Amino acid sequence: MATLNGSPVGIADLQALALTNYGHFTTMVVEDGAVRGLALHLDRLVGDCRTVFGAELDPDWVRECVRREVRGFAGRCTARVTVFSPGLDLAAPEREASPCVLVTTRPAGGAGGPLRVQRLTYHRDAPAVKHVALFGQLRLRRAARLAGFDDVLFTGADGLVSEGCTWNVGFVDAAGTVVWPEADVLQGVTMRLLRSAHGRHVTAPVTDRLLRSMRAAFATNTAIGVRSVASVDDVVFRTDDPVVTALREAYAGVPLERLWAVSDK
What we know:
Blueprint: E1 2-4, E2 7-8, H1 15-20, E3 23-31, E4 34-36, H2 38-53, H3 59-70, E5 76-84, E6 100-107, E7 115-121, H4 135-146, E8 151-155, E9 161-164, E10 168-172, E11 178-181, H5 189-197, E12 201-204, H6 208-213, E13 216-221, E14 225-232, E15 235-236, H7 242-252, E16 256-258
Parallel strand pairs: 7-8, 7-14, 11-12
Antiparallel strand pairs: 1-2, 1-6, 3-4, 3-5, 4-16, 5-6, 8-9, 10-11, 10-13, 13-14, 14-15
């Protein structure tokens, strides 16, 4: 399922995205026509469009494109909104951009069980932007999985923890405080919602020593919500921590924002 600027998409329409792979995106879970953090997703797209293309993006038009794509879905689905400019290519990336809105949908999955992750050194290019250049991230996810882990957790050259492959990571210290890594990371929508919805949160440089002192760890993104991390390398965490459970409940309680009025559905 895919639409481009609200209309069915053809193979030729996707050549620039497939061959040049320059653009940005956000992913949201749609539940009966509503989204947690919809305003934050739209703000992300508008801000990243300015950064990536030097162009303005109309959030109301994005909302309409998502509506057209998900209108036939009942229950839950995952919608990815990708913004790219068909006129830009490898030979002329400096051309004036005309951003287009591609919306793709797939069935929404569950959070899954606790993750076992491996630390590998990596720093994403332009980490504040949710861009489509995922080669480096997926290369290391593949390496971690081939080594027997579920996913990868990135550290900088200085050894400090930053973020997961496609998720933010948080920790719970001995006092029950939520600790987020102080690092250049993509500020996830789920993480931002949690910091507003629940308890005491701090940021700190997560060294190996600090990581080993934590009682629990968790991963967050729109697709999984809040997912326990069972281990980082040889460091084992409890997966039934009450703070992580409270975070999961707080996220479930975040009000949904409707894509359209009930009478318009």
